[in-house]
Structure formats: C-alpha cells, structure tokens
Amino acid sequence: MPERPMLEQPDAANLLDTARDVLLRTLLPALPEALRFQARMVANAMAVARREGEADPAPALAALRAALGAPEGEAGDLLMRLARDIRAGAHDPGTPGHAAVAEALLALTRLRCGVSAPKALGH
After folding, report:
1. Which residues form the DUF6285 domain (predicted)?
2. Other Cβ atoms closer than 10 A to 11
3. Is the full-model pTM beyond 0.85?
4. Separation CA 2–CA 110 (nearest Å)
5. How far is 28 from 20, CA to CA, in rounded Å?
6. 116 with 48: CB under 8 angstroms?
7. Count of alpha carbons within 13 angstroms of residue 112, beta-carbon side
8. Closest CA to 70 of 31, 49, 100
9. What is the DSSP string of the chain?
10. 70 with 81: CB under 8 angstroms?
11. Contacts of 122 (CB under 8 A, 6+ apart)
12. In 3D, which of 118, 5, 108, 106 has the Cα closest to residue 51?
C-alpha cells in the first residue's frame, strides 16, 4: 500500500478507531436495548470507513485496465464497460480475454471484501 502523508496527529484512521472504541465500550452499554443495534451499525460503518481509507485499489484497477485493454478511464466507466461486455458474452469461457477478466474480477472481489467483509477472506 502506498504511504500517505499524515497531515496532523491524530490522523483520520486513529480518530475513527478512537470514536468506535468509545461508542462500543462506553456509550453502547449505557444505551437502552432498543438503540443498541443502531449503535452497532454505526460502529460497523466506522470500521468499514477505516478499512476503505486504507485500501489500495490500484492493483485491482490495473488488472481491470489490462483485462479490458484500456490504459485509461475512470473506474466506474471501466466497470460499466466490463458489465456490458460480460452480458454480451465477450468474456465467456473459451474467449481470448476470459482468464484476464476472471483475474480482474477476483482482484476486485478481494478488494471489496477486504473493505466490507474481511472475515470472508480470513482476516
């Protein structure tokens, strides 16, 4: 993962960790039972935001660009193109680009799971 310059202390990741810890350890036990589920949802959203801030999409985007033969373009546009191509059968098994597209989809899936469901990856 590329190093990001830290502009000040604490950084955003540390603030999210601290706020989440306060929510779960201090506020959650004091909340009425009817509000605890919502508090856990907020804590989960904070954890996802933390992981998203640390995720490096560059390798998955590079795999997608290579699979599509598209050295440029926004990620959203490339994903829409990929979806259209898949619906049209352009990357079905046996087609020349199938393996590269499968690898790109695996990289994209790992990236997304790493952010939203790291336990699915064994993390």
Report:
1. 29-119
2. 14
3. no
4. 18
5. 10
6. yes
7. 7
8. 100
9. -------SSS-HHHHHHHHHHHIIIIIHHHS-HHHHHHHHHHHHHHHHHHHHHH---HHHHHHHHHHHT-SSS-HHHHHHHHHHHHHTTTTSTTSTTHHHHHHHHHHHHHHHHHHH-GGGGT-
10. yes
11. none
12. 118
Give tens-digit pLDDT for 24-71.
Answer: 999 999 999 999 999 999 999 999 999 999 999 999 999 999 999 998
The encoded tokens of residue 41 equal 């949802």
Structure tokens at 45: 């959203």
Whose tokens are 């589920």? That residue is: 37
How would you classify residue 70: left for phi > 0, otherwise alpha for psi between -120 and 50, otherwise beta? beta
**Integer Cα distance of 123 and 54 in angstroms:** 15
Cα dihedral angle (71, 73, 75, 80), rounded to 10 degrees?
-110
Could you check whether the bond before residue 29 is cis, i.e. omega within 30 degrees of 0? Answer: no
